[in-house]
Give the backbone structure.
Amino acid sequence: MKEHKKQECLDCSFSSITCPILQNLECLERKWTLRILREVSAGETKFNKIKKRVKGITASVLARRLRELEQAEILKRVTSNSTPTTIEYAPTEKAGRIFACWFENAT
């Protein structure tokens, strides 16, 4: 289990455990996460399409990473009322800011 030390994060009043910047960085640095976000930013929103495009990721790891991105409020899960029910993942405003940084620095 990962041990967290209570320390001040930069010059803010948050401990390293509750610092929102560190929490987001820890989420983003996990294996596969950036590749998943790349696919979502390119318009892939369905689980199976993301899985197909991210070569080598297992379904269980993809599901876990998508849940983590939901909890970090980077992606939101959208369930349709149609039959059969479809589940898609949409970027949140926070994801939009992340994507904007990527695209701004890509040129």
